[in-house]
Write a structure and sequence with these properties.
9 strands; elongated; Porin
Length: 185
């Protein structure tokens, strides 16, 4: 009798817990306002886009993403550096009522391309990977749209001989996403 009661209790607890689990897959795109920490650098406006997954249990969600991101900076007096990354942020989302959320997490980046305004390849002077921290806020609307504002600050030095200074990325992102497929509540 005790085993039956324990089994039924575990089934009931599992059913309640899993009834609040949801998972979804979507796409997102938006604007980047990117810069580096190099003295004399100014921000450039570019774009990002890609896909995300969202796994949510009650008021906490985990949202891994794969994004193509154009970053870089311009310099006082002329010149611009354009950096293309594939970034993989893994955001933990803390939900408030009505889909509002705060989010934080690490971002891992892989450098695809690095050029100056003349098309000169700069990739050999930069490291191929980038580690950043991301903080943001958003709204997951009830009809599948996501609106996000996020600040991503570089933690790793990307300089591999191109400069005498540490090179760290800084990016402010505004995004809109749409959940294409959703399971659960």
């Amino acid at each position: 009798m005790k085993k039956t009661l324990l089994t039924l209790s575990l089934v009931f607890i599992s059913a309640v817990a899993f009834s609040q689990v949801s998972a979804g897959i979507g796409i997102k795109a938006g604007a980047n306002f990117a810069n580096t920490n190099i003295s004399g650098s100014e921000s450039i406006t570019s774009l990002h886009g890609g896909a995300y997954g969202l796994f949510k249990l009650a008021n906490i969600g985990i949202q891994p993403e794969v994004l193509f991101s154009k970053q870089g900076s311009s310099f006082t007096g002329g010149g611009e550096v354009n950096l293309d990354y594939v970034n993989i942020p893994v955001m933990v989302k803390f939900y408030l009522p009505a889909g509002l959320n705060f989010q934080a997490g690490p971002q891992f980046g892989m450098l695809l391309n690095a050029e100056d305004e003349d098309g000169t390849d700069l990739k050999d002077g930069l490291k191929n990977s980038d580690l950043s921290a991301a903080l943001g806020a958003g709204w997951d609307a009830p009809f599948g749209l996501q609106f996000t504002a996020r600040y991503v600050i570089g933690l790793s030095d990307n300089n591999d001989g191109i400069s005498n200074e540490d090179i760290k990325n800084k990016t402010f992102q505004l995004s809109i996403g749409y959940t294409l497929f959703k399971l659960g509540k």
